[in-house]
Amino acid sequence: MKKYILFFLMINLFTGCDYFNTYSLKNKSGQILLVEVVVNDKYIDSKNIKESMMYNLRSNKIISLDTINYKLKLSLDSDEEFMFGGATNGYPLLDRYDQITIYKEDSLVFYGNQYIIQNLYTNSKQDHTEVLNIY
């Protein structure tokens, strides 16, 4: 009996109940979007600027990288996501980007600073994987 109790306790110890909340933007337009972001300087490592600017980016389609002004331009294919932020067991930290601008065929589709993005998240369902769809 002691073996079963010990086994049960060990299983509970190694399987946590942690959940990861994410907030991202998804391209649902069917076209390629141009995303321009300004990274908050508190997230920049002065010894490794390029890598700290591209932290957690899934897109390999970087168009330009301005390491002086911390600006990044990339293309976002259809059904591709751009991650705003995430956190374990809490609200995602959404202050990584000071400004996000999205264009579709030279037309502005979305503009947001960290306060607008935080407000959009606050007014959403906050169901662990919140996605802002861009059409």
Automatic annotation (TrEMBL):
This is Lipoprotein.
